[in-house]
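Lab manual, section 2.4: Encoding a predicted structure.

Procedure: take the sequence of the chain (141 residues), apply the prediction step described in section 2.3, and record the output as C-alpha cells. A sample record is shown.
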Amino acid sequence: MEGEIDLDRFVRSMEEAAKGTFWEELGCSLERVEPGLTVVTLDVTGRHLNGIGILHGGVHASLLDNAMGITAMVARPRDKVVTTNLNVHYLSPLVPGKVTVTAELIHQSRKMVTVFGKIEDAQGRLGSWGSGSFRVLAADG
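Recorded output:
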C-alpha cells in the first residue's frame, strides 16, 4: 500500500542511529519488532547492578523507556516521538542473567502514543512493569 513503510529498513536505520548511544552502552539487543510490539533483551552483568546485587532501578527504567519508545517510533515512523511520562512499578529483584523486555502499544492519538512494558527474567518472573506516554512531534522538529 502507498504510504506504508518498509519495517525492516526502518528497524535497520534505528539500529544504526543507536550506535554509540546510551542504548549501546547498556548492552541492549533488539530481538523483535513489529507494529504494536517490541522485544528487547539484556544480559545483566555486574555493571547493571546496584549496591545490593540486584538490577539497578535506573536500568529497569531505561530498558522500559527504550523498548516502549521503539514501539512508539514504529507506530509513528514518519514523526519524531519523545517520552513525556514514564511510570515504573518495581515488583521483584532481578539478578545477573538474561532479562526480556516486552512493550505493547496501548493507544495512540494524533499527538500522543501510550505503551505498556514489562521486564521478566529467564524464569518468567516479573521484575517490573511500566507505562509510557510519548509526544508526537512533527517530522522536522
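Check your result against the sample. The chain has three helices and six strands.
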